[in-house]
Design goal:
65% of the residues lie in helices and 1% in strands. The chain has 31 helices and two strands. It has a two-stranded antiparallel ribbon. α26 crosses α28. It comes from Coemansia javaensis.
Length: 585
């Protein structure tokens, strides 16, 4: 072909040499894996060597040598796999339920992941277990699963989960599901059932947390459990209500609300273990001791809270009546602790369970729960008691804590203002308004604001002073075309700077000056516009640009405002954005 194209002998020799050099380089780069070597060898039985060499564009000797090397590698891998499998069978631990892969890796002097890859489940007597339920896992297995995944597998795929399953001797999909639950704890139906089974067998939440170390703490596990139970009970009751409405024989109109069992006289069915709970409680009471609810729960086979809610024994229970003089903070703290430990936020506490826990009548416990929620019936005795304590100089915060732990001093102020406060101040009469107008007209330019207010106060008596100040401001503004607040510019400047710096507030200044907050706010806003004009002069812009170029880090806007002189920190921040947008620095 080269002769037909008109290529000479020298060029033909060079082309052949280049082709041989290319084929040699290609043969040097060929790497045949062990799993493909056997397939290629099978193919060579039907396909001649020269045909495969032509297909891969390599010499026949290089191709046969690559197949021989691949066969040797495959045999070496098979030998190592047999060794690892035999070693894993030998180091199988009945206590762990799996092979000790750390010892296997040390004996074989290989990495743990390589040992897991070489393990052959088909040739081993170790058979993987299936643990789809959360309760089937032991605490040691959960810790081992978390440790092996975190320490040896960074990016988890399907093949990696198979290796984790080999390590744990558990199905890979079960390991994947359980590890996802460990990393993102959530209360599911299977977790709820497992926790409920543990509560029936174990005495406390700390033991349940040690048995199922999924959540961060026993408190978080308890909160998640009760929240899930509350949601499930609500959905079940909603489903029962829907089924009742659907099964109603009345057609053409919607059925009325389902009657309350307690109000309609329909007997409430107790749980099946209620009789056993009552029997055990009576037996402990007859022995003359206090009821041990942990022991009751172990005898019945249910949790302590369920036994407390199911018990209907009311013998020898004490009474408790709310009284401001006999309010017990100790009992209130016990109630709050019981409610917080057993009923999460948003769940209605069970007064029967609290009654059995404190061994106090259920109606009194319901009153205590209402008291702790702030639902207080303000009778005359309580109101008089509050007034007496206030007159004796007891702080309102202390009075509130004596009545209920949820009351605050602000709540007591509201109660005193609404129930026991003085009568509302009267408005000014027409004669008093004329008097105030005449005083302001005569003295608003002669007297200082405080002196003018004192003179007006003497004439109006017990009127609403806020309205009087507003009327003074109105009269003075009508006369002088400005606010009825007269201050020196230096004092006004200081007040404005304190307000901008957050060191004081308008109500505090108004109380100190004995003026209305509205009038003072209007005056200071107008004075602020005079102190800090919105327009920037050329000198101020040059100062700002120098400041921005000098301080390249975080800018102290208060310091910059003082540096420029007549600009607020907010105006400095706005100018900074504008100069940056213009590209000046």
């Amino acid at each position: 072909m080269l002769r037909v194209l008109g290529i000479g002998p020298a060029r033909r020799a060079g082309a052949v040499f280049a082709q041989r050099r290319f084929m040699a380089a290609a043969a040097a780069e060929i790497q045949v894996l062990a799993d493909r070597a056997s397939e290629c060898l099978k193919k060579t039985r039907a396909v001649p060597w020269y045909t495969m060499a032509k297909e891969h564009m390599v010499p026949t000797r290089h191709l046969s040598r690559a197949f021989e090397e691949g066969t040797a590698v495959r045999r070496h891998w098979e030998f190592q796999a047999a060794q690892i499998t035999a070693l894993a069978d030998h180091l199988y631990s009945e206590e762990l339920g799996r092979a000790d892969w750390g010892a296997v890796a040390r004996e074989a002097e290989m990495a743990l992941v390589d040992c897991l890859c070489l393990f052959d489940p088909g040739a081993s007597r170790i058979q993987p277990r299936s643990k789809p339920a959360v309760g089937d896992w032991t605490p040691k297995e959960l810790h081992a699963l978390h440790s092996v995944v975190v320490n040896n597998f960074a990016d988890m795929g399907t093949s990696e989960w198979q290796l984790v399953g080999v390590y744990m001797n558990i199905e890979g999909r079960d390991c994947r599901s359980m590890f996802g639950l460990i990393m993102n704890p959530c209360m599911r139906e299977d977790v709820f059932e497992a926790v409920r089974d543990c509560l029936a067998k174990l005495p406390g939440w700390d033991d349940v947390q040690a048995r199922l170390p999924i959540f961060g703490s026993a408190q978080s596990l308890q909160t998640a459990y009760y929240k899930y139970r509350h949601r499930r009970d609500q959905s079940a009751s909603r489903g029962n209500q829907d089924s009742r409405e659907t099964a109603s024989p009345t057609k053409g109109r919607s059925p009325g609300p389902w009657p309350d069992p307690g109000a309609s006289g329909i007997p409430v069915q107790p749980p099946p273990y209620a009789a056993t709970v009552d029997q055990e409680v009576r037996r402990q009471l007859q022995q003359g001791g206090k009821v041990d609810w942990a022991r009751v729960g172990s005898v019945v086979g249910e949790s302590q809270l369920r036994c407390l809610e199911a018990c209907r024994v009311d013998e020898s229970k004490a009474g408790w009546t709310y009284h401001p003089d006999t309010f017990s903070e100790l009992e209130a703290s016990r109630v709050k602790r019981f409610v917080s430990m057993n009923y999460p936020r948003g769940t209605e506490p069970n007064a029967r369970a609290l009654s059995n826990f404190l061994w106090i009548h259920e109606s009194d416990c319901a009153s205590m729960l209402d008291l702790l929620r702030g639902r207080i019936v303000w009778d005359n005795y309580a109101a008089n008691r509050i007034v007496n304590l206030r007159d004796r100089g007891v702080p309102l915060g202390r009075i509130a804590s004596l009545i209920s732990p949820v009351l605050t001093a602000k709540g007591m102020e509201k109660f005193l203002r609404d129930k026991l406060g003085p009568e509302k101040p009267r408005d000014m009469t027409a004669e008093e308004m004329d008097t105030v107008s005449a005083i302001v007209k005569e003295y608003h330019q002669k007297l200082a604001p405080n002196e003018l207010c004192t003179k007006v106060r003497e004439s109006v008596g017990d009127c609403d002073w806020t309205k009087v100040l507003g009327y003074i401001n109105k009269c003075a503004g009508r006369l002088s075309k400005r606010d009825a607040i007269w201050l020196r510019d230096a004092d006004a400047d200081e007040m404005v700077r304190k307000i901008l710096a957050g060191k004081t507030r308008i109500p505090n200044l108004a109380a100190a000056l004995d003026v209305s907050k509205g009038a003072l706010n209007v005056y200071l806003k107008a004075h602020e516009r005079k102190m800090f004009p919105r327009e920037w002069t050329l000198e101020e812009k040059e100062k700002a640009l120098e400041y921005f170029e000098k301080f390249t880090g975080a800018i102290d806007w208060d310091h910059m405002s003082r540096h420029i002189g007549k600009k607020t920190p907010r105006q400095c921040r706005t100018m900074y954005k504008e100069l940056r947008r213009m590209g000046l620095f």
